[in-house]
Amino acid sequence: MRPPNPPSPERSAELRRRFAEEARGERPDLSLLCLLLGAEADGGLDEPGIDAAQMELDRLAGLVPFRPGGPMSWATALHHLLGAREGFRGSPADYQRLESSLLHEVLRRRRGLPILLSVVWMEVARRAGAPVYGVALPGHFVVGFGPQEQQVLADPFDGGRVLSGGDAEMLVAGATGTPLHPSMLSPADPLDVVLRILNNVRAWAAARPERSDVGLWAVELSLLLPSHPARLRYERAQLLVQRGDFLTGAAELDAYAEVVAAVDEPAAERVRRQADSARAMLN
Known about the structure:
Blueprint: H1 9-23, H2 30-41, H3 47-62, H4 71-85, H5 103-109, H6 114-127, E1 132-137, E2 140-145, E3 152-155, E4 161-163, H7 165-176, H8 190-206, H9 212-224, H10 231-242, H11 246-261, H12 265-280
Antiparallel strand pairs: 1-2, 2-3, 3-4
Helix pairs in contact: 1-2, 2-8, 3-6, 8-9, 9-10, 10-11, 11-12
């Protein structure tokens, strides 16, 4: 996907300001963060488009039948509404599309990656009053309903199919080759969800060197989150050099080397040499 009109520098700066502000708020709004991310990817997503996506989530929540029962009732209701009736689900081909990581496109296409479909499930269920949260299983994101002792898991990528304990164990074993540990079933923090989405975007771009522009904005949004891996600064520097911004990239490499030097001087020296090489490209 190449957006027909990438956001202007002024629009991008405003989106990033709002993204950082929301991420640092007391209760970050997951859907808004995902939509601001989408607007950074797609300059065609303007403010009315962001509002329309939020209204679609509200509309879907209004279709959830009142369920006075427990977690299984909620999981079943969301499966029938979002999976069976509205057609939200995923397929292997969705892993090859950038749109599969953009909430507004997932709402339009009814297709996406497991984590984005889980965002739809979470945001619709939350608006309807369900005890819902994301569960970041290794390699496959799902949603959970209810407290851990009564937890019911559902897989939005498979239309919201309710998972048995054995199903969850198979998902983890297939992704990691290791057993399911109870800690893997804990609710995911909204900002961790956003970082994981950005990681997916970065991975998509890394497999397509011609789309280093996508990799760069994904790294830069990740750096706006209150907590992020320090190595992202190194990745940003490499992308700047790759895109021909040698001086800025070299300065970023030098700054990263200073951070690394406190714990690993040989590694810091290797980064400094990379900075020298980047500056030499100007000659």
